[in-house]
Amino acid sequence: MTRTVAIIGCGLIGRAWAIVFARAGLNVRIWDADPAVIAAAPAALHAACKEVGQDPLVLSHVTVAADMATALDGAEWVQESGPERLNIKRQIYADLDRLAAPETILASSSSAIVASQFGADLPGRGRILVAHPVNPPHVIPVVELCPSPDTALVVMDRAEALMRDVGQVPVRLAREIDGFVLNRLQAVLLAEALSLVAQGIVTPQGLDDTIAHGLGRRWALLGPLATINLNAPGGIADYLDRYGPTMARLSNGAARGEAFSGLIGQDLAAVMPAPDQVPALSQHRDARLAALSHFLTSDQQGTI
Amino acid sequence: MTRTVAIIGCGLIGRAWAIVFARAGLNVRIWDADPAVIAAAPAALHAACKEVGQDPLVLSHVTVAADMATALDGAEWVQESGPERLNIKRQIYADLDRLAAPETILASSSSAIVASQFGADLPGRGRILVAHPVNPPHVIPVVELCPSPDTALVVMDRAEALMRDVGQVPVRLAREIDGFVLNRLQAVLLAEALSLVAQGIVTPQGLDDTIAHGLGRRWALLGPLATINLNAPGGIADYLDRYGPTMARLSNGAARGEAFSGLIGQDLAAVMPAPDQVPALSQHRDARLAALSHFLTSDQQGTI
């Protein structure tokens, strides 16, 4: 029997998830509280496929549900991708938990709201977690799986297995933490980046070049820990012996939250591509990410 | 007339630089204080070319110099790639400044010692800077150009132009700063990464997956600032309005220098590829980096 999942919320993220599950051959039911969003979804899904070279035929696995209950019927997994507002999430999860069969897992795409904030008071809190993708998940495979203190281990096991089954790369967090892993790493790097630009040490372009034409390439191939494991003859312990004191000094002197305040946003906006270019640049980024993903996957086969 | 550069210090970094300049068609003179290193250099250069698919014929531009003065004769640029120890750098720069023609630029590959520390007392301090590559520079193009307070602007201009001429991506820093840009960014990310692993929130593999299969892919294509410029409908100012407070909270709660202390290195070494695998894995990394560089360069031609 073909497995079934439901996508609740059909904005950019929900539609990208629909492609992830559909191309893996699962039945996908989509629903959104806003009739205009759901009416536009089929054409938007088609366009999203075309932009990244995905055959739109996979969309034959996607059906629009008439209401939330119909979407949930027989679904083993709900990928909730609604607005990033706590009061809305609380209402959605109250509805989902009431309507979904007991064995259905309820996973949120939330990037900033932890599951205990919207699930702790519900009878089904043990089947609720965050499955945070990097936008857009049909071209970036990582998914952070973050439990609340109530999430059952068996639910985490099933979440991890499903994500692997559909070709994503699940990263399982041992317990709930603000920002999960990805945005904690992004936050510290951005703080120092914004500070260096605000001090006039480097231009925004120079800052981006340092990562895009430098460290980011190693990180994209290996990740930051595997990178330093190869940066000293004796591996990571040797690296930390040699360079740990320097790295500690640099971190202690680095910027923190204050880097996000002030006029830095307006200063940067003045020299970076303008907001009216964001849609076209985002489409182009996604096409390049899809090509990069293809490159990394085929290249990876040669890994020793 | 063919341009000439000198490589002083022929370890891994010096040899990679020799390939960078040679493949751009420059005359390259190499020299090392250790006769054993210089004796092994031709074979090591040949092997390094083969590993990344570079035709070893470019090595016809490389000649071994009998002594430092011969290496410097007629060179417009010296890429010093000696040991990362201050007392040794001081001696090398005293010799270089005495022996090199006045117009020759003296650039250090140092990753952690700023130019004022070894150049401030020399008559030629105005022509000394750091040109910090990411290892290895023949497969990773970024080069941080960091002046001392004494470095002449015209020297920075010539450094930037030369790096562009040989196909690298120069990032010019406005003034001297500990760690330059790249390692300041790496330090803060590593501190938080080590802390998350030490706390048991995520495994080392999960941490690396989060970047390699997630954020690192965007960073490799765009860099961190161009990434957030596309992560809100109104561009980077909109992003910082929406997510700045969250990012500030996460940075304020992040780990710092203390994350580099303790037993984390030994714990990580126990679960990561062992030191005896480092040489083979590094070779494999370089081959993949060369392929990635080729992919990004050809893909970039389609950039809007």
From TrEMBL, chains A, B:
Residues 179-244 form the 3-hydroxyacyl-CoA dehydrogenase C-terminal domain. Keywords: Oxidoreductase. Residues 4-175 form the 3-hydroxyacyl-CoA dehydrogenase NAD binding domain. It holds the Pfam family 3HCDH_N. Its EC number is 1.1.1.35. Gene3D superfamilies: N-(1-d-carboxylethyl)-l-norvaline Dehydrogenase, domain 2, NAD(P)-binding Rossmann-like Domain. It comes from the Bacteria. InterPro entries: 3-OHacyl-CoA_DH_NAD-bd (IPR006176), 3HC_DH_C (IPR006108), 6-PGluconate_DH-like_C_sf (IPR008927), 6PGD_dom2 (IPR013328), NAD(P)-bd_dom_sf (IPR036291). SUPFAM superfamilies: 6-phosphogluconate dehydrogenase C-terminal domain-like, NAD(P)-binding Rossmann-fold domains. The keyword Oxidoreductase applies. One of its GO terms (molecular function) is (3S)-3-hydroxyacyl-CoA dehydrogenase (NAD+) activity. The keyword Oxidoreductase applies. NCBIfam families: PRK06129.1. Belongs to the 3-hydroxyacyl-CoA dehydrogenase family. PANTHER family: 3-HYDROXYACYL-COA DEHYDROGENASE FAMILY PROTEIN (PTHR48075), LAMBDA-CRYSTALLIN HOMOLOG (PTHR48075:SF1). This is 3-hydroxyacyl-CoA dehydrogenase.
